[in-house]
Amino acid sequence: MALEIERKFLVDEKLFRQPEKGIRVKQGYLQGDGTMLVRVRRQDDKAFLTLKGKTTGITRAEFEYPIPVDDAEKLFEFCRRPLIDKTRYLIPAEDGVHTWEVDKFFGENEGLMIAEVELKSEDEAFSRPEWLGREVSGDPHYYNSNLAEHPFSEWKDEI
Amino acid sequence: MALEIERKFLVDEKLFRQPEKGIRVKQGYLQGDGTMLVRVRRQDDKAFLTLKGKTTGITRAEFEYPIPVDDAEKLFEFCRRPLIDKTRYLIPAEDGVHTWEVDKFFGENEGLMIAEVELKSEDEAFSRPEWLGREVSGDPHYYNSNLAEHPFSEWKDEI
């Protein structure tokens, strides 16, 4: 088990210089009541099953296991719709310590771009790139699990 | 992924000769809406995470992955109560082909004993030992996932 501490921000697409290479990620969530999220993720020729405990602040328990890609594809059939389809870019932070994971969403979440940074403690400092927008760490709208139920295209007008 | 086909019976404890050695099994279920069950199981020094699709007749899709024992213990904290505590006995069937898995339950399911046989097809023949009782394959009461929510001790009078 790992404890995941991360902060999440919107990205100003005009200022963000998109790297050539990204990782295409497909992921889905098995339905549950939210005590523990069960995520199926495929990245190219790798796949993972991840269990995530309820979020406490910006920290959550996470259990991740590699699974066969074929299993992931079959498990997607059991996941709620829409599946999450995004390209992930890894951007080394200027502080030389952290790495930004920038996700550009497609499909029903097209238009959304989110940057995440993983921290070792909740109050750890990190450098902020110029393309970093509003922080959305605590906002459930931006949880990938919620984007798989209420995608961006459906709530554009609410925010 | 495997397709699991199994038939399940009550056991006549008076006729059943309990082997000396059994496998103590502790298992729990992460809450979910039933589309897919997520089971955590520990057997001695081994542990598994298992996803089971909705039952169709006596067949269901099953995905099983070994996980660290420490993870299993932590995941039990997220499982609904009571956890399933049972000893499993493996009894070779007289037909020389099948193996009976006989589970003797403890805790809130004390008094219950269930035998299961795994088959390759739904109509496959198998030999029936003398201690085999009533078939309960289709009865949701006897699903381990339901015994973890409505244990035997609570429904003795209903059956």
TrEMBL record, chains A, B:
InterPro entries: CYTH-like_dom_sf (IPR033469), CYTH_domain (IPR023577), NeuTTM/CthTTM-like (IPR012042). Signal peptide: none annotated. Coiled coil: none annotated. CDD domains: CYTH-like_CthTTM-like_1 (cd07891). The active site is at 29 (proton acceptor). Residues 2-149 form the CYTH domain. This is Adenylate cyclase.
